[in-house]
Amino acid sequence: MSENSLKNNILELKLEGFEGPIDLLLSLVKDQKVDILKIKILPLAEQYLEFLKKIIKKDIEIAAEYLVVGSILAFIKSRELLPKDENENDEIDDLSEKLKFQILKLAEFQKLSKNLLLRKQLGIDFFKRGECEIFSKKIKYKYELSLYDLTKSYAKAISHEDNSKMTIAYSKLFTVEKALTNLKNSLSFFKDWNYLFTFLPKDIKDILEMKSAYASHFVASLELAKEGHVSLKQNSKINDLQMIKND
Fold it and tell me: How many CA atoms does the CB half-sphere of 163 hold within 13 Å?
């Protein structure tokens, strides 16, 4: 085993072409690239004991952590080198299986610890609520009223006096008096028959005011005809009314 194998006191194994620290061996077990149950304990024991001899020379306190496993491996190695005995072989096989089980269990612990670290962490990946949200309670009201009480309340509501004021929007209408004045002033300039709409003011833009002016001029023309100031005629029902001033 090279001195690089002792760097940082990490045990390295060389089994059937596999080389790397023991944690890498366990990661391969996890990935099912190497079956830990098929690894031979004797080569593992030889490399482990070689590591133990060198580490003891450097730091006996660190080496003490490996003495328990080292003693088991040394016992297994010694029994493997001695002549075979059926009873002793059963004991060696039992120790080997227990050691393999401990290595496999360590691999599972490393797997679980890695998965645990992959989970989202409070304060990094997610955060708890700073202040608890206060939800108001929903209150359901239940009213028990008779038909008489309900009818009485409804009658009181609809009979409540409305104090609001009604406001009528101002409308600019053309009065009959104004139409009479306009016709009297305009007739002096016309000697022939003219349609009634000819006498309407030309400055009116609003449609409602225009309709009001036409109606007022119609009433005013009838008033003037009644007094004998003008004559009226209509060629047909669909034609406009015509008017001329009497001499």
Answer: 0
Tokens of 106: 């360590």
Using left for φ > 0, alpha for ψ between -120 and 50, and beta otherwise, residue 104 falls in alpha
| Of the candidates 10, 39, 4, the residue with the CA atom closest to the CA atom of residue 23 | 10
Its pTM stands at: 0.34
- In the chain, the amino acid numbered 172 is K
Report yes or no: 188 and 235 within 8 Å, Cβ to Cβ.
no
At residue 18, the 3 state secondary structure works out as strand
Of 41, 42, 1, which Cα lies nearest the Cα of 21? 1
Per-residue pLDDT reduced to its tens digit, 50-76: 776 776 676 655 555 566 666 777 777
- The tens digit of pLDDT for each residue in 77-135 reads 777 676 666 655 666 677 777 777 776 776 677 778 888 888 888 878 877 777 776 77
Query: Structure tokens of 101?
Result: 């089980």
Q: On the CB side of 210, how many CA atoms lie within 13 Å of its CA?
A: 8
> pLDDT tens digits, residue range 155-210?
888 776 655 677 777 777 888 999 999 898 888 888 889 888 888 888 888 888 88
How far, CA to CA in Å, does 57 sit from each of 6, 35, 53, 73?
Answer: 11, 33, 7, 19
> In degrees rounded to 5, what are phi and psi of residue 143?
-105, 135
CATH of domain 176-245: 1.10.10.580
Can you tell me the distance from the alpha carbon of 34 to that of 135, in angstroms, rounded to the nearest whole number? 57
User: Among 92, 89, 103, which Cα is nearest to 38's?
Assistant: 103
Residue with tokens 């360590």: 106
Residue ranges covered by each domain of the chain: 3-118, 176-245
